Amino acid sequence: MRSQIVQCPLLVALAIPLSVGCSNDGGAAEPSGSTATGGDSGDVPLEGDSTTGQSPPPGDSSTTADASTETPTTGDEGGTTLEPGSSDGDESSSGKAMPSVDCDMVPALPATDMVVLNNIPTSEDFTFDAEGNILGVSIDTQGLHRTTYNGETTMIVPNVSSFGRGIRVLDNGDYLVIAPGNGLRRITPEGSNTLVLSLPDEANGLAIHPNGIAYFTSGNGQLRSFDLDTGDVAVLDEFGSLDGIVFNLDYSKLYYNNEFGTIKQLAFDDEGQPTGTPSNFVTIAVEDILDGMAVDECDNLYVIEMSGTVWRVSPDGMIETAASLPADILSLYSALNFGSGVGGWEADHLYIMSLFGGMVEVDMGVQGKPLPHLP
């Protein structure tokens, strides 16, 4: 078990304005606010009020263009589109999974049942495989690791990137990783590491449609698509500095944020192709910047503000404070995902990564969106 301290050069790597200062010795200055229980893990008290809001009028910022690619490899065949539900839920008469909870009666917010995990390698983004591991490119070692809930860590591939970003799992179990300086990599669980697309160093978040098309955001404001089968690349939007990205429950909408409070949406047809132009979904009054996003089995959207507020946005645009995270591991939270339901990672818990070391586990009482590669 270990806690980590990251020096302020990390803030330069992020290339974004942050509310974290530096001490005279170059380290990160301690934030103000209450502190939480230390040690390996423990219950952390939480305070915070919920906030509501309405979505703003749709925007009209969109651009479509072609972009060059480098040596694409063959992708996977598409999976099935999922309806609201979970891997543990019953099936409806139509054969589609039903939610494990009554979506009209989800637990009240903000969530307060949380623990801090100090044995997970720090990474800018992370995801889960089907074998009970968390996956991420370690900021410390720069390699791709798999780690169990108990903290047992195995290096899969060394020297992936000095600051790896978006990472997701394909239907067949391979990993896609945004590796600034090294492009978009396809890595197998056995460690084969292949370049599939050259990317700008500002490439950031990553989401994959079951039809095998990847979508990624960039700090230069571009939303791009990349077809793993054909190698085709398209620019779908240009708006601010883009970061978090995720599909909704049935893959009919793609959500992505511009870090400074606006979450946009792009509609998809039944064939998994974008339709229409991107529009504004909601704007959150943030004090810091937005980063990673996730979706639950009731189609609610979750987004982390790097200072430690987890926001939940309903499908109709109502904004609430889902959780307020502890300040004892500093205020630089970058990514969140629901657990896989395998190996101790609870399917109804959110896991939120801090770039200054440590991960917070929050019991939300509702499971995450089912993913094709998970059991």
* N to C succession of SSEs: HEEEEEEEEEEEEEEEEEEEEEEEEE
List low-pLDDT spans.
Answer: 1-95
Number of structurally distinct domains: 1
Summing up helix and strand content along with how strands pair, one would put the structural category as: mainly beta
CATH topology title: Neuraminidase
CATH architecture: 6 Propeller
Under CATH at level 1, the class stands as Mainly Beta
Termini separation comes to 29 Å
The helix count comes to 1
Q: Characterize the biggest β-sheet.
A: 5 strands, antiparallel
> What percent of the residues sit in helical stretches (DSSP H or I)?
under 10%
Name the average pLDDT.
80
The named CATH superfamily: TolB, C-terminal domain
The general outline is globular
- DSSP strand content: 25-35%
Total count of strands: 25
In the sheet with the most strands, the strands line up as 1-14-13-12-11
Radius of gyration, whole Å: 19 Å
